[in-house]
Design goal:
By secondary structure, this protein is mostly beta strands. It folds into 2 domains: 6-111, Electron Transport, Fmn-binding Protein, Chain A (Pnp Oxidase, Chain A), CATH 2.30.110.10; 115-204, predicted glycosyltransferase like domains (Thrombin, subunit H), CATH 2.40.10. It has one helix spanning 11-23, and strands at 6-8, 27-31, 42-50, 55-60, 73-77, 82-86, 88-91, 95-99, 104-106, 115-116, 123-128, 139-148, 152-158, 170-174, 182-194, 197-204. A 9-stranded antiparallel beta sheet has the order 1-9-6-5-2-3-4-8-7. A 6-stranded antiparallel β-barrel has the order 11-12-13-16-15-14. A hairpin with a 3-residue loop joins β12 and β13. The longest helix has 13 residues, at 11-23. The protein is elongated.
Amino acid sequence: MASKMEKITSKAKIEFIIKSMSSEKSKVSLWQEKLGDTRKTFLSRILRFDSDRGEIFLTSNKESFDFDILNEVYFFWEKEHIVFKADISFMSDYKIAVKIPEVIMTKEKRILERIDCSQIPTSINFDLGDKLESSFNRLPFSSFLFDYSAKGLALKVNKLNISKFLKGDRLTMKVPLIGNEVITGKIAHISSSYDGVYRIGVSFE
């Protein structure tokens, strides 16, 4: 029985997946649908992802690209069973740039699993309060992370500040590891960890 494909439309989750592909310099298959022609697939490697421009840059492994720049190009990342299509923004013989897709299809949910930050200390700035509230009513904080994913993150908060956080509180943040837009998260749980450090689990909304 074939695995059911999951449609991902969240901009934050899509950027998270593209950044994961980019950080691994992943090899992907590219092709176009052409009526009456045998489909030709190009094995390519991701060079980088420019989140500000919303573009993915790739290079061909061997053959020069012969795509129609006016038509969409299809992607397949075999490692995580990711499929999507995207518009071409630039193309030369051996390099191509495409716009970030609006929809990604996957049958592997592990790409959205949490990334451990214990080896590489990672911090974010955030406000305690909803993004719709006036900035005067929000409390600014900075915190290191236990881990993060496209669905949420876990903050490290010391015992001096833990009384300021309650389950159900909303946090406003910009998480460069995942996406560039300002997002709101909701505190799902609070638990003690070690040496007076508390773990605050936040789910993105």
